[in-house]
Amino acid sequence: MGGGNGQKAKMAREKNLEKQKAASKGSQLESNKKAMSIQCKVCMQTFMCTTSEVKCREHAEAKHPKSDVYACFPNLKK
């Protein structure tokens, strides 16, 4: 025999709670877009805020060999 209405309602609440938890995990695309705070001033390409100075230098040398590294990324310290 099945349960009463109280048991069915409780099961429905638990099921909906699990759905909400699964939906909130989602993707990190929005937070990744917000973290793109370093920008090359020559080509306007954005980089993650955790990008190292070495990666910035590599970008400048590969993409803009005629420009100075500090022209691309003025926030780097000389």
From TrEMBL:
Species annotation: Trema orientale (Charcoal tree)
Coiled-coil blocks: none
Gene3D superfamilies according to UniProt: At2g23090-like
Pfam families: SERF-like_N, zf-met2
Compositional bias annotation for Basic and acidic residues: 11-21
Region feature (Disordered): 1-33
PANTHER family the UniProt entry points to: OS07G0114300 PROTEIN, SMALL EDRK-RICH FACTOR-LIKE N-TERMINAL DOMAIN-CONTAINING PROTEIN
Protein name in UniProt: Small EDRK-rich factor-like N-terminal domain-containing protein
Domain At2g23090-like zinc-binding: 39-76
Domain Small EDRK-rich factor-like N-terminal: 3-36
